[in-house]
Design brief:
heterotrimer, A: about 375 residues, mainly alpha, three-stranded antiparallel sheet, two-stranded antiparallel ribbon, 15 helices, globular, disordered N terminus, C: about 290 residues, ABC transporter involved in vitamin B12 uptake, BtuC, two-stranded antiparallel sheet, 11 helices, about 75% helix
Chain lengths: ~375, ~250, ~290
């Protein structure tokens, strides 16, 4: 490969397209390697049940981080409501599974359907929200997406859905307002959420989902659509002057991002016996944790998101004693990360002392000798 | 048939008329200059022509078609391309990708095909790669095709912006101060490049410029703008010798 | 009569939002950034005041002043070390950093004070007012809150219009570069903005805790976000807008809590934000900003 072309400074970890096919294979390879290693550990009994319990949530976080990076790093818009899409996906997916548990007894058919339905519902919300907010300025967009995330969580908490022989019943007051027959079954119980979701998730399925997410995301980035999206990120006015439909492409990025957040939610929901919408799992706390993964892994750096999600989820377990300080450490690292990657002074400092510069210096000294 | 014609084009911001009764007629293949002191409204005219601003009065016709009040996106599709006073490249994308974005509406395939890597993806991408590299070669940028656009030196960034604009296969190319920040050598090179583009791409060019060497060197006709109004219009040599124009630039 | 009570409580709540919104709107207008951590400064203000009153036994007025002082120093420190280096960077960067600061403050408070709510004794010693033959009670806290916000708003308006520093702030909010060329010390002006905003946040924190007497590390976040909604609602960058937006939002939230449900009240508040941004993004009293091409 032409040495000239490798001379690429990537801020935020973005990579030039010529290098990328090898890069992408490394990313896929990384995921498969993790899968293989974990399976070996399980087979040899070296993985404690504590760690095994973390595997599905780990996959969930990876998918959430990669999908958020599509919005934040590729489209360049700060969305603070990603957990809202996860919430929509989780509840629609779990609801579907519970509702069709008798009609579709085979999890092999039911779960993929749940995943698709969860993803599509989240995508629908993504479309609705996107159409509403994507034309807003960056700061406003951030707050509005946060607002939407909270609204979704609040609405889910006042949702009561029951099923009996005469069909479905909805209410936003309480259980008894559902007016169900004695044989009725409550599916969504307001703040108590959904109980009894079939536990269909598994690590293998999680890894497959990650690979699908990667496949779609990476191919999108390398396509004409991806270039349009990145052009909008880098210079909206110039993109417009080249005839790119800003709203359309912003929506595409947002919707795909929401879709995968939804599937992550379904994966998450089918790993718990009870699914409730609490501030800590579906509120802006969660949205911010995922943002931390994205920022730490490198905004726009898909592989970085995977690594960050894995490390930052696994690390607190390794450093049990520090678990109280976990969020504090996240916060400090986040701040330092932003200062070192984005502050103009820091960037200038890095360029002056970069390894490449050093090599060039040594080379030029050699040539003059 | 004039490629570009405006009739009494005007825009007011609040009570201030930034552009007042702007009339221009540019024939196909002409290299036309728009000059005037700073703040005269030249970039505002460009913004009016490209749909960034909607005029409060008047009309714009592109090759006979009325494009008044249309959006930037549809005007681009109709065949108007522009570069900007402050270079607007896609800083985090490669030089090649910058040009390929320009080809966005020339070679199309669906998002779906892109994600699933269907045959149309490979076919169209190959065409785009070829077209983009050809454009880069015109501007002697082919060696830097893999570079991040922000890593190019200033003069090459300007050229890249022009290459990207040409990728949209326009009827009319608007260049906003293309020689800004260039030394005499670079300006001379730019003049050759613009002449080349005019001929080889069968282009019509309207440019805003302050560098009088470039203006007198390559522009056939000029319009002088002062305080939003047309001060003088005509052949380059006549206009540049017009006493009113000289006064406007140099003061009383 | 119930309606009037809810209305008055809503105005009181809204006054607190107005004070917080003022800090937001000033920072947004002058430093051009969304200080996500503003809400948490409120929380710090509350805790400092709590420590001063209960542990150190200081009289209420002194603890309020102490709280304002500490928050001012905190706000200026944050601006100097976390926001100023990123002033020329992408807006996304400073927004994420602000989120980091917000989390830092919350988790520091969590570590220092623990998650259990602290009960706050009200700093207000003004007696409640009974009107309409005893059917309507306006608490002392309500009176003080509304009075305080009016005083602050009037004070700020006068300050910005008449004082040199205030007009410097206006200049920086219009055009930073031009202001600098005119001799305005931009760094100092922005630092002053953060100082004022943070001290106001401290006041808001004390008032908030007097009205709603439990204090947790998360007490500042929600009011902070809602106050931002209020600032946008009233028109970001506008001092009277912050007041108007705050009061209206407080009333809407309280009436929603009373007549619909407290669960949905939050959702409705956020719904207001969305509607405003769709219909009139510059807010009720805001000005339109055009982007230079």
């Amino acid at each position: 490969m032409d040495k000239e072309k490798t001379k690429i400074v990537s801020r935020f970890g973005r990579v030039s397209p010529k290098l990328s096919t090898k890069n992408d294979l490394i990313t896929f390879g990384l995921v498969i390697a993790i899968f293989v290693v974990i399976q070996i550990l399980i087979a040899t009994g070296s993985l404690s049940s504590l760690w095994q319990g973390l595997l599905v949530p780990l996959c969930t976080y990876v998918i959430l981080a990669v999908s958020l990076n599509l919005t934040v790093g590729i489209l360049g818009e700060l969305s603070l409501g990603h957990a809202g899409f996860m919430c929509v996906g989780a509840f629609t997916g779990a609801f579907f599974s519970l509702y069709t548990e008798s009609a579709i007894p085979s999890a092999w058919i039911r779960f993929p359907l749940a995943l698709i339905i969860g993803g599509l519902s989240a995508a629908l919300f993504g479309a609705l929200i996107g159409v509403t907010v994507l034309r807003l300025r960056g700061d406003y967009l951030a707050i509005v997406t946060l607002a939407f995330g909270e609204i979704i969580k609040n609405i889910v908490n006042v949702l009561y859905v029951g099923k009996d022989s005469s069909g479905l019943h909805f209410s936003n007051v309480n259980m008894t307002a559902l007016n169900m027959k004695p044989d009725g079954e409550i599916l969504i119980n307001g703040p108590q959420g959904i109980s009894g979701t079939p536990m269909d998730s598994s690590f293998t399925i999680g890894i497959i989902l990650i690979l699908v997410t990667l496949f779609v995301t990476i191919n999108l980035i390398h396509s004409r659509t991806g270039r349009a999206i990145m052009a909008i990120r880098d210079n909206r006015i110039a993109a417009e002057s080249l005839g790119i439909d800003i709203t359309r492409y912003k929506l595409i990025a947002f919707i795909i991002s929401a879709f995968f957040a939804g599937t992550a939610g379904v994966l998450y929901a089918h790993n718990l016996s009870t699914l409730t919408a609490l501030p800590k799992n579906f509120g802006y706390n969660m949205s911010i944790i995922i943002l931390v993964f994205v920022v730490l892994g490198g905004i726009g750096n898909i592989r970085g998101s995977i690594i960050a999600a894995v490390v930052l989820t696994a690390l607190p377990e390794i450093l049990r004693e520090l678990s109280d300080y976990r969020m504090l450490i996240y916060a400090i690292v986040l701040i330092l990360m932003m200062l070192f990657t984005s502050s103009p002074k820091a960037i200038a400092l890095r360029e002056r002392f970069s390894v490449r510069r050093l090599i060039d210096k040594i080379k030029s000294r050699k040539e003059t000798v | 048939m004039a490629i570009l014609e405006t009739k009494n084009l005007s825009i007011s911001f609040g009570g201030l008329k930034a552009v007042d009764n702007f009339n221009i007629s540019i024939e196909k293949g002409q290299l036309y200059g728009l000059i005037g002191p700073n703040g005269a409204g030249k970039t505002t005219v460009f913004n009016l022509l490209t749909g960034v601003y909607k005029p409060t009065e008047g009309r714009v016709l592109l090759d006979g078609t009325d494009i008044t009040g249309k959006s930037t996106i549809s005007i681009s599709k109709a065949g108007v391309a522009r570069t900007f006073q402050n270079i607007r490249l896609f800083k985090n994308m490669s030089v090649l990708d910058n040009v390929k974005v320009g080809l966005h509406n020339q070679e199309k395939y669906s998002t779906f095909s892109g994600i699933l890597k269907l045959p149309s993806y490979f076919r169209k991408e190959a065409i785009m790669d070829k077209k983009a590299m050809e454009l880069l070669e015109v501007f002697d940028l082919q060696k830097e095709s893999g570079y991040l656009a922000s890593n190019l030196p200033y003069g090459k960034q300007r050229k890249l912006e022009i290459a990207r604009a040409l990728a949209t296969n326009p009827k009319l190319l608007l260049l906003d101060e293309p020689a800004a920040g260039m030394n005499p050598n670079e300006t001379a090179e730019l003049m050759d490049t613009i002449r080349f583009v005019l001929k080889e791409f069968d282009m019509t060019i309207l440019l805003i410029e302050h560098d009088m060497r470039l203006v007198s060197g390559i522009c056939e006709k000029l319009t002088v703008l002062n305080f939003g109004q047309v001060l003088a219009q005509g052949n380059t040599s006549e206009v540049l010798n017009d006493p009113q124009v000289i006064t406007a630039y140099l003061g009383e | 009569m119930d309606f009037i009570t809810y209305l008055v409580t809503g105005i009181s709540l809204g006054s607190i939002y107005a004070i917080i919104a003022l800090g937001y709107t000033m920072v947004y207008g002058i430093a051009k950034m969304l200080n996500f951590a503003h809400g948490d400064i409120i929380m710090v203000g509350g805790y400092v005041s709590f420590v001063m009153t209960s542990s150190m036994g200081l009289p209420p007025l002194l603890s309020i002043l102490g709280s304002m002082l500490i928050c001012t120093i905190l706000g200026m420190t944050i601006e100097r070390f976390a926001y100023r280096p990123l002033r020329e960077a992408a807006p996304l960067a400073v927004l994420i950093t602000a989120i980091g600061i917000s989390y830092l403050l919350q988790n520091l408070a969590l570590l220092i004070f623990g998650a259990s709510p602290k009960s706050f004794s009200s700093v207000v010693s003004v007696p409640a007012l009974k009107l309409a033959g005893g059917k309507l009670t306006i608490t002392g806290e309500t009176i003080v809150t509304i009075a305080a916000s009016v005083v602050i708003m009037v004070g700020m308006t006068i300050f910005i219009k008449k004082s040199k520093a205030g007009r410097a702030m206006l200049a920086v909010s219009e055009d930073k570069g031009a202001a600098q060329l005119m001799g305005v010390n931009v760094n100092r002006t922005i630092a002053l903005t953060f100082a004022i905003g943070s001290s106001l946040a401290a006041v808001a924190g004390v008032l908030l805790c007097s009205a709603f007497p439990t204090l947790t590390p998360y007490s500042g976040a929600m009011p902070g976000i809602k106050a931002f909604v209020a600032a946008v609602f009233g028109g970001i960058g506008s001092v009277p807008g912050a007041m108007l937006g705050g009061i209206l939002l407080g009333v809407i939230e309280n009436l929603s809590k009373a007549y619909i449900s407290s669960q949905m009240a939050d959702a409705i508040v956020f719904g207001v934000l969305i509607i405003v941004l769709l219909v009139k993004p510059t807010g009720i009293l805001g000005k339109k900003i055009t982007e230079k091409v």
